[in-house]
Structure formats: structure tokens, C-alpha cells
Amino acid sequence: MTTSDMTPRDRPRGHRGTPWIILALLPILCALPLFAGTTGVETIEKDLTAILGDPAFEKAHVGVVVDSLTTGRRIFEYNAGKRFIPASNMKLFTTAAALLALSPDFRWETRLLAGGTMTSGVLNGDILVEGSGDPTISGYFHDGDVLHVFRRWAATLKEKGVREIAGNLVIDNSSFPGPPYGKGWDVDPVNCFSAPRDAFTFNNNCIQLDITPSGKKGKGVFLAMEPATDYVSLTNSVTSGKDTDRDIVHLEYTTSRSLSISGSIRPESPTITRYVAVNHPAHFGGFVLRETLEAAGIVVRGDILCARNCPKTVDVRARREKGEWTTVAVYRSPRLADVIKVVNKLSNNLYAELLLIATGRAQGATGTEESAAAALATLRRAGVDTSGLVMADGSGLSRHDLLTPDSVARLLRIMAEGPHARSFVDSLPVMSVDGTLGARLKGSRAAERVRAKTGTMTHVRSLSGYMTTTRGERLVFSVFSNNHIGTSAVDTAMDRIILRLLDETPSKP
Questions:
Q1: Rounded to whole angstroms, how far apart are CA atoms 273 and 267?
Q2: Which domain holds residue 450?
Q3: Is residue 119 part of a domain?
Q4: 252 and 162, same structural domain?
Q5: What is the spatial distance between Cα 296 and Cα 168, in angstroms, rounded to a whole number?
Q6: pLDDT, tens digit, for every residue of 189-228?
Q7: Are strands 258-265 and 233-240 parallel, antiparallel or unpaired?
Q8: Are 127 and 329 spatial neighbours (Cβ–Cβ below 8 Å)?
Q9: Is 211 part of a structural domain of the chain?
Q10: Helices (H), strands (E): how many in the chain?
Q11: Is the pTM of this model over 0.85?
Q12: Inter-residue contact 91 to 352 (CB < 8 Å)
């Protein structure tokens, strides 16, 4: 699965004292250090250089920067100013810019409006959803109930006496004018990691597909979708048999709303879950909203119309100007400080893309390119050197993105010393505990001492963040590898760097 997430520069000046970072010191879980002997700066340089000679990095493009937050010193650098494809390490820049431009308390608002008049329970007009680019209309923040927001809207309409909507369900998704896919994306139209972007987003613009074998040879499989919707029709040709030693499932759209599932699954296999991107996400959200209203006893007589990127479009602005509209309900998202945890801990690409758009809109920008420029301008005002960097999207899915290890380390230092330090650091995965680092270095001395953002694409690996060494020094680090072969071996080599740094002796100012 692709997600996203690499001339030396001047050495940093006096970044001293950052008392807000509290990465709890735990007992050392591994009794013996990785390297014996003195661990001064010279030894660190020698040891890290030796790790960079690992066969995993042979013929790869590798960069490393390690700075001390405690003293402000640069401890180690290698290709610090070289440009790398960052994968999901780009999300560090996206979330930092959002915090600076919007504040941790920012919330999206999505409005449900009604037009026309009411007669005996019939709304003689349209209902309209005003999309704001909110990524949180899903089950993630609502105890797993993907229909939570739509059910509340249905309940509100019923409370107001609406039993029938004579007009259309209109989706105003005009606030995001950009294309559904980013420049330089390796788009897989089925996989959720590259789901299309839209100003009206529901359930990550994806469905969950569960494929469960019947348990009997030749009896096939059972399919289940969440949300349970008629928006996507399924064609199932999966067989069940013991003539294979592994499960093979292939998904393919035959039309924009027809999904073919083929392959072979062993009868004893557990349920296989796939997260499948939908086409025309605003239409998808509107379709499920109409199903939810009808399940609550509210009939929608008209069609589903969108401002853009839908099978049927309409001039929403002209329609809104013609009549009077009443706000029926407003959904306010969770705080930005909570939303960026989904971006960084889970490396959610769609959340990152919509967050970049929100950052741009706050500064008068529209579209991804203008929003990226606005985000970089925000970071420059905070002191980040963005010269030579390329921000093609917010998620890091684009192979046009370019960062340097030095720029990442500088960003991390500035955020560590800034007004939103706690929100930013808390959004990062904790080693061996949660997010994309939940299973990494389990049982080692790195557990709970490291908070970092991962980055993964084919031939790309990155890991950048904060750590507290076993002797109490606070470090910032950024490690990039491009053009390597063998992701597992690169991960292992990067883990060796992390474990070595944890044994670093406190450096002198």
C-alpha cells in the first residue's frame, strides 16, 4: 500500500530549553547498549556512518540530520541539504502550517439548508448540503457510526415536520475547485489510500468491503459493505477451495459504480477487509444521505445534483440566489488538534489533502497549488527555510514533492519551541504504542521514547521526529532513503540509527 510520508547547511544557532516536551523516561528495556565504549560526538559520527554503510543503503540516496533540542547543537548530518521524495513526511509540513494558520481550535462547518415552503409535511423545494472540505463526516469521531451525522440531520428534519422533499438533494461542493487527484499521484482507482478529493467528503470517500469465506469448499464467499448502500453494485466471482496456499483477491471497477471481485480464498481463511475508494465522492455522500433520510421515513422525490465532479451537475450559485434558504442543521467537526492526529498517527492522505485546502482558504487561496504556496508562506513566516522545497500536495502521495532532511529538522525544532508545540507533538505516532509505529521496535528501549512520522512509497522511506535518549537528552532527527530496494531491510537499518541515538551521551553546548 502506498502512503505517503528526503552541501550541508549552516549549523543551527542556540535552540535552548524546550521544557514543554515531556517524553516520559522509562526503564531501559534492553540491558545492553548496541555499541560498547564511549559515546561522544566522534563515536556517534563513527557509529552512524557505519550504519549508513549497511547493504540496505547500497546505491540508495540517503540523508540524515540529528539535532539536540537540549543544547541546540547539531550532532550528526549526512546529505542534510540534498533533496528527497519525502512520502508522508510531507504531512509534517501540512499539519504544522495548518496549526499556525488556523489554530488548534479550528473547526470545519457543514450546513444543511432547506429551500421552498412546507405544506402538510411536504417541503416544496430542495435541500442543500454546503460542503466545507470537512474530512470528519465518518465513523472515526463518532464511535464507529459512519451514518452518525446523516442520522442527526434526518432526526432534525423529522422534528421540523418534514416527511417528504418534493425537490432535489443538492450538494454544493464548489468550495474546492481542484481536480480529484493530485499532480504526480500514482492513482489506484480502487484503493482507499488515493481516494479522490472533494469539498463534500463522506466516510473518507471509501467503502469497507468484508470478504468472508463460507467455510465449505466450493461454497464461495459472503460480501458485506459498510456503509450498507446501493451506491456500489458488487459482482462476486470469488471461489473457495484448497487448491491454493494463499488468498488472492482482485478488485476492479467495470463502471463508475460497479465493482468486480474475483480470486480464490481458502475456506478456513479469516475475513479479508478491503477499503475501496468510490468514484464521484460528493454523489456518493449525497446518495447515502438520501438512503438515510428514506430509512428515517423522509422521501426524496428529486435527484442528486452537485456543483461539480458528479454525474449530474447544476449551477448551485444561481440556484441559491433564486430563493430563500433556511439553515436546518450545522455539523461542526472536532478541533483541528484532534484531526491532525488522524493525519499524522494514521497517515491519512485524504485528511491531509483537505487540511491543506483549508489552510489555503484561510489565506484566500483556492486549489492545491495555491494552497501549497500559502502553506509554505505560513511556514516561512514562522522561520522555516522553504527555499528549494517542492510541495505538490498535502499528503506526500506526489512524487513531485521534495524536502531535505535539514528542512524537516528545522521545522521540527521550530514547532517544538512554538505556541502549538503540544498539539503538534501529540499528533505524532508513539514508538511501539500507536499509529504507524504501533508495532515497531516492540520490547526495545525505544518504546514510548520516540514520537515520529513515517513515510512509505515504493523505493521511498522516511522517519522524522523527536526522541528522549536513555540519559535524558531531547533530540530531533530526520532520516530519508530514496531509490533503495528492500523496504524491510531499510526499516531495520533505520531502527539501528534510532537505537544508537537513544544511547547518546548528553552533548555539551
A1: 16
A2: 41-87+400-502
A3: yes
A4: no
A5: 17
A6: 999 999 999 999 999 999 999 999 987 766 789 999 999 9
A7: parallel
A8: no
A9: yes
A10: 11, 20
A11: yes
A12: yes
